[in-house]
Amino acid sequence: MTDENLSSHLAELDLSPTDELRSQAVGTEDLFAEADADREAFWAKQARERLTWSKDFDQTLDWSEAPFAKWFVGGELNVAYNCVDRHVEAGNGERVALHFEGEGGDTRTVTYAQLKDDVCRAANALVELGVEKGDRVAIYLPMIPEAIATMLACARLGAPHSVIFGGFSAEALRTRINDAEARVVVTADGQWRRGKAAPLKPAVDEALAHGDNPVEKVLVVKRTESEVEWTDGRDVWWHDLVDGQSTEHTPEPMDSEHPLFILYTSGTTGKPKGIFHTTGGYLTQTAYTNAVVHDVHTETDVYWCTADIGWVTGHSYIVYGPLANGATQVLYEGTPDTPHQGRWWEVVEKYKVSILYTAPTAIRTFMKWGADIPAKFDLSSIRVLGSVGEPINPEAWLWYRKNIGGDKAPIVDTWWQTETGAIMISPLPGVTTLEPGSAQRPIPGISAEILDDEGQPFTEPDKVGYLVLTQPWPSMLRGIWGDPERYKETYWSRFGEKYYFAGDGAKYDDKGNIWLLGRVDDVMNVSGHRLSTAEIESALVSHPSVAEAAVVGASDETTGQAVVAFVILRGGAEDHGDETVQELRNHVAHEIGPIAKPRQIMVVPELPKTRSGKIMRRLLKDVAENREVGDVTTLADSSVMNLIQQGLSKDS
Ligand code: WT7
After folding, report:
1. CB contact set of 597 (below 8 Å; sequence gap of 6+)
2. Probe ligand 1: pick from 277, 309, 525, 527, max atoms within 8 Å of CB?
3. Four-point Cα dihedral 119, 125, 127, 132, nearest 10
């Protein structure tokens, strides 16, 4: 579709909520008024109505040590109790919590009663391994029910978990285990990926081999029956230790501000940041948003969030939000094209999924595969669709609504971050008239603004500025693990201490909708995953042949952005063309993980730098996106770009 066709097509659509949604949706217009009238009272009500507290809180927000927030001060609750036990106590033990679907087609149905038993067994096992309240537990597991049981077992004990995505390498695992000083690692022999057993435990062995960590025990789930090496005294099989444990475990109430988890994310420097979240505020906002944004009706809906638990989306919208609400959900282990490209739609049909939450990258991939694939399945159960991770382009939006949503399901385009913990900007299904491509407005209880270069808020349409959050919110990060200064500096200094700087560019349209325009810092967004240019550059220069490296995120039709690297080889290192490039790509995969592998690596004689030695990524981005190179006048040596381009055209 051309842009013009697209906009005239869009103009014809009626994207206001249907009468049915208006009357039945969880999120209502009234919520906005209520939150505007008294924000703190609004959140206090959400906290009390949605969660079960062992001890009520006496202060909603303590912002006296800003930007370090305390929410629901004095309150006590146990997250695992809220996510499982209380549903069983309320008589919903037989309700399905998880419809687990393995990649190979093996399935498990886990009810809330069973999940409670699983969580208790895992908690007792962790206690036996010496885990105490406050200890950190690293989790490096596939998308299997044990992953959820382990996270909730940690929460039950007050032992913050640090989940590391199964696609990260041994090296990335090591830095994360060490930074969090984890005492126990929970992993599996392997995971199913595209019909093959992909190993997991060897990466843990390699990460721990350095000996510079406090890990005492490694608990190993048997998933793929792959051969694994065994360290006696350290390694323990899950089935040996966990299966025989008691299904009774008394949850201990935690302070509302007790740390719940650490999750590492890429920042603008080479060192990943340990974003940490706490108990009461996080659970309140994840439960609230899962209800009002995804519109989950726990009695009737089957909800499916396709994220991996290794990312914040999996934490907030597979584990904590939906389980706190008592939802029934699908947990799928594998890739979307195994054993065939209709796998997801087969899953939707099989479990009658009614709410689907996924990422624009996935949608664009399905577009490429063709609409005839989902058309072969009965998707009529779908009533709400969600999108997260990056801006969704109107064309993908329309495709999603038409081919997956039966031309009627509302799409909630949800903007948020690892740091925000939960959804911040999004339409509400029963309230908002949708605007394809825009995340639209802050949800009730949240405030955002767009600032200009001088830090002044503005509302005029089409002017580009910086997105900021203007009020603390319950699920906000409480800091960067072990580095409070970096927290202040990264988020609360760019526009003064009043504004949380999100790192995203944004603009308004003439209806007052917010459009997110991507990162304004040196952070890339590849398939909705955050990667830092500095981290990949430092991985590249750690290779003996590389003298210097510069990385940019170039726009890519499917993945949103793709990693493109420019490297200067060391004197003496020979350029073997493709072979060198392959070796460097693999090196990045080894240092960080396959997700960080550059799409393209260009060997160049020089890099464009300013007089103060800063690499001008803007110009490299022009090259990577095949554009005419922009203004070069601030370069120390303005002929560098010619040199780079001559070199590249010679290669191709
Ligand atoms: C960055 C946060 C939120 C969980 C997954 C990613 C981008 C996220 C949207 C959206 C436009 C979006 C932003 C943000 N982003 N959702 N709906 N529209 N951009 O979490 O890895 O912490 O990344 O993802 O750039 O800053 P994350």
Report:
1. 563, 585, 586, 588, 589
2. 525
3. -60
- Quote the longest CA-to-CA distance of the chain: 74
Q: pLDDT digits over 364-391, tens only?
A: 999 999 999 999 999 999 999 999 999 9
Side chain identity at 422, as an amino acid letter? A
Reported in sequence order, the residue ranges of 421-494 that DSSP labels E, i.e. its strands, are 448-451, 465-469, 479-480
Q: Are 127 and 242 in contact (CB under 8 A)?
A: no
Tell me if 506 CB under 6 Å of ligand 1. Answer: no
414 in contact with ligand 1, CB cutoff 6 A:
yes
Strands (E), 461-535: 465-469, 479-480, 500-508, 514-519, 523-526, 529-532
In whole angstroms, give the CA distance from residue 416 to residue 429: 17
Run of H or E including 182: strand 182-188
ipTM metric: 0.99
Please list the residues that pair with 162 across neighbouring strands. 138, 262
Q: Are 488 and 500 in contact (CB under 8 A)?
A: no
Q: Dig out the tokens for 315 from the structure.
A: 């934490």
Using 50, 70 and 90 to split pLDDT, how confident is the model at 652? very low
Q: For residues 468 and 59, is the Cβ–Cβ distance under 8 A?
A: no
- For the Cβ of 556 lying below 6 angstroms from any atom of ligand 1, the answer is no
Question: Which amino acid is it at 141?
Answer: L
88-101: pLDDT as tens digits = 999 999 999 999 99
Burial per residue of 502-520, b for 16 or more beta-carbon CB atoms within 10 angstroms, e otherwise: bbbbbbbeeeebbbbebbb
Handedness of CA 385, 388, 391, 396 (dihedral sign): negative
Chain centroid to Cα 312, Å, comes to 4
Count other C-beta atoms under 10 Å from residue 633's C-beta: 6
Tell me what percent of the residues of the chain surpass a pLDDT of 90.
Answer: 85
From the list 73, 126, 135, the residue with the least C-alpha distance to 262 is 135
CA-nearest residue, atom 24 of ligand 1:
389
pLDDT at 213 over 70: yes
**What is the whole-number distance in angstroms between the Cα of residue 266 and the centre of ligand 1?**
12
For ligand 1, is residue 416 a contact (CB within 6 Å)?
yes
Q: How far apart are CA 260 and CA 281, in angstroms?
A: 11
Q: Whose CA is nearest to atom 5 of ligand 1?
A: 389
Q: How far apart are CA 537 and CA 584, in angstroms?
A: 11
Q: Is the dihedral of CA 611, 617, 620, 626 positive or negative?
A: negative
Q: Which atom of ligand 1 is nearest to the CA of 418?
A: 22
Whole-structure pTM value: 0.93
What whole-number distance in Å separates Cα of residue 61 and Cα of residue 44?
Answer: 9
Cα-based distances in Å from 467 to 35, 424, 495, 554: 21, 12, 11, 22
Query: Taking a C-beta distance cutoff of 8 angstroms, is the pair 578, 593 a contact?
Result: no
pLDDT band at 566 (very low <50, low <70, confident <90, very high): very high
Distance (Å) from CA 273 to ligand 1 centroid: 16
Looking at residue 296, its amino acid is: V
* CA 8 distance to own-chain centroid: 34
